[in-house]
Each structure stands twice: as structure tokens, then as C-alpha cells.
Request: fold
Amino acid sequence: MAASVDRTPVPDNPEEIIVSSSGPQRFQSTVIDPAEVKTLAKRVRGPVLTPEDEGYDIERAGYQLARQHRPDLVVGATGTTDVRAAVEFARSHALPVAVQGTGHASAGIAGEGGVLINTTRMTGVRVSLETNTAWVAAGTRWDEVIHEAAPAGLAPLSGSYPGLAVVSYTLAGGLSLLSRRYGYAADHVRSIDVVTADGQLRHVTEESYPDLFWGLRGGRDNFGVVTGIEIGLVPITMLYGGSLQFPGELAAEVFDTYLRWTATVPDEMSSSIMQMSYPDIAAFPEALRGRQAVHVRIAYAADVLDAAENLVEPLRALGPTSDTLRVLPYTEAGSIYADPPFPGSIEASTTLLGELDTTAVRTILALAPPHAPVPHIFELRHLGGRLALPPAVANAVGNRDARYLFNVVSRLERADITEIRPAHKRMLEALVPWSTGGRLLNFMNGEDAAQEVRSAYEPEDYQRLTEIKAVYDPDNTFRLNHNIPPANPTSAVNRNEEGSPAA
Reply:
């Protein structure tokens, strides 16, 4: 017999609106029969919590505090069996599903309702010296993989912040400190274990489920809950890296020099340039309080590091006020960006850019502090190199022709959202002449992220993703995310294709 569900909206916040890939929708909570919650709890080893339960807020908490999900039910999964039970419960109750590791990728899940599956308890790493790979459980963070791989002389294609969850970062593409040399992290995925909307666990490879393997690597959590992935590791133990800091008064000169410099560096050199407006508080050095500073971050991953000093000389010649560049073990790579490890309320916007020039630099700086109070941070990350080339095994990651990633971030405790959003919009609109029109999924965390999902893919790839979605999640159960809706079933991938659910 079908489960009993009371669909009366919860009255606490009846006007809650979220944005989905098809536009604004009213998203209301569902009251679930407590007896059925107890039945689910007996099948699950981890906690099963409703909004009335103690520990509910802790279980749903993530890194991004500006947009938090208040689900009807949160399941703290401890393994694949828990995930399958949670997905089956959601399907039987016609509830949408969200997946959360560290809670950095929060686009599309703010609001009321649905089932949230928290994978943070599902941790573990197994490194294989024979294949130079690592199997990584769903809730594992990069710092665990980095330290497990290091004794073998290997490193993963981890990002700037080692506290990120491996799975969501990788399956959204994954822009690594090593990516100009090795490509996106998604390019190095060997296999994926995923619970699809029918509650089945599938071991997905290029051979077993070619369509799903292609789509998961770039389509992230649109096709199911990934319980583990196998990733390739690279023979890197040391980097030349760190940061150069310059006073804000030199911003135009530093940005101009940086753009010229990136046109000359080898693929082994990854870098970014950021201007940050510091708040006038005691937590920062007195010389930075209430001022702007420009940071150039460097990660040079070559087999021989001797050339590094000569490569960075054009930047050093500008006279940085702080210079932390050095040879360091990959286990300390997180110190290069020194991203804050604590949660925060932020608004972020992003776009991909082609070739840039002095005019582009002046355009950006004219809309930033000290000329305007927000944004608080804006950044260019140098792309190209191996990122611009197709992977050995094709995947859905798009926009490989971009030369730079532009990201702008403001903190809500320092400015009102009604001030932040227009400021971000002005900056992105001013950059339209240099924009490719694309975006990277990992950096799409602003208010419009759910509406911008198409821009992360090539048009034909997006269409293929919707067709794969129609096969594996025709009801769009996995929609509290950067959502890709299912195509019309008549245009879907052949359901009798080898490796499909009908096979």
C-alpha cells in the first residue's frame, strides 16, 4: 500500500520561493506520518531526523550559510544501504532529494521540503599502487586523500581548499591546483558507484554504463547519489607555490603584468590573481584593515622545480609586500590559497572569459573598491593548458575553450544582499565583451545558479544530459541541485541500450 502523506503546507513560511532550472517555483514542505519516519529509521543505521528532532539543524548545516535547506527529512547515511533506503523512501513519497557532503554546493536546495541525504559519515580511502588510483567514499574530503596518497609519491587533483568533499567537487568538473598540467579532476575518474532513482546500486564504468558514466562526470548529482568513486592519482610530491601580496594602489599594474605573464608560462604553472577588500577589524593586520590588497597565488607542478624562480621573476619585480613562494610538499598545498575553513554567508557570481586586455582590467577595477563598496573579493584563475583539451574518455564537462575563470564574492555580514547582487550584476555585465557565456559548475553558487545550469555545458551535451536523465531519473527526483530536467521520454536515450535500466 502506498505511504500516507499529508501534503498540507507547513504554515511557518508559506511564501518560501526557490529557483529551479525552469524558473521560480513555490516549494512547500510536506508533513510525513511519524510512524513512517520510525519505519525508515529502523532500516537506517544513521540518524533520521525531522525539523522537530534534536540534532536536525546540525545534521543539515553546511558551509554556505546564506542559502540553507530545511528538508522534511534529513538522513545521515552511514553507507550504501542507508542511501538506498532514503532514496526508496523519497520515491515512495514523491519527495525530491538533495545530497550534501560539506555543503559548499548549495545552489537549488535553499527552501523548505524534500529529503536531504548527508554523506559526511561515509568516509574512507583505498590507494592502489598497482594502478595509481584511489577509491574514495562519498563523504571523504580531499585532505584525507592527499595524506593517504602522499606516502606512495602520488597526489590527487584536489582543489585549493582541502576541506572540500571529493565527490561533488570532482563530478562537477574539479578545477585543481594541478589542472593546467593534468586537466579537470573529472577527466581522471575511473569508476563510480551510484544509487539511482529506482533505489538500485550501479557500478558505473565506461564499459558497464557508458551513457551514465559520461553524464555523471560533469552532471554531478543529477542522476543519483554517488556512494564512492575511483580516481586516478598523479606522480606529484612537491610544488613550488605560495602567494605574492601587493598593495591595492598597484592593482592596475599587477593585473596588467599578470595577464601578460600568463600568456608566457608553461602548462605546469597554475595561478590566480585576486583583489580583496579587507574589513576594518582587529582580526587582520593593521596595515590591511579597511584597505585593498592584490594576491597572486602560484602552484608550479613540474618534474623539476628549478625553473620556478625565473618564471615568477616578472611578478616579483613589482615589489610585493609579502612573498610566501617556496618549495613545499603537496600535503601543504592548502596553504597556497589559505581558504577559510569555517562556514560563512556569502553571495558569489561567476563567468568564463576569453582573452583579456588592459581595457578589461580597467573595467573590472572601476567597479571594485575603493571606487565601490562591494564586491569584497574578485578573482581571475588562469585556465588553458590541459584544461583546453578533451579527456582520454569523454565526459560532460564543458567550456574547455575559456582562458580565465572570473569569480566575484561578497560576504553578507559586511553588506546587504540588496546592495551585493546589483554590484555583482554590474561587474558581470561590464565583462560581457570578454565573456565566453559559459560557467564552471563548481563556482555557480549565487542566486541565479539554478537558472544558469545550461551555461556549464555545450548545447549538444546539455541535450544529451537531459536524455540520460529521462532514462535514470524520469521523475526528476534528484532536482534539489544544479538541476538538469529530464527530456521528453520519446527523445531519450534508447532504453534497451546495453547497460541501461531495461537491459
Summary: The first strand starts at residue 5 and ends at 6. The chain has a mean pLDDT of 88. The radius of gyration is 23 Å.
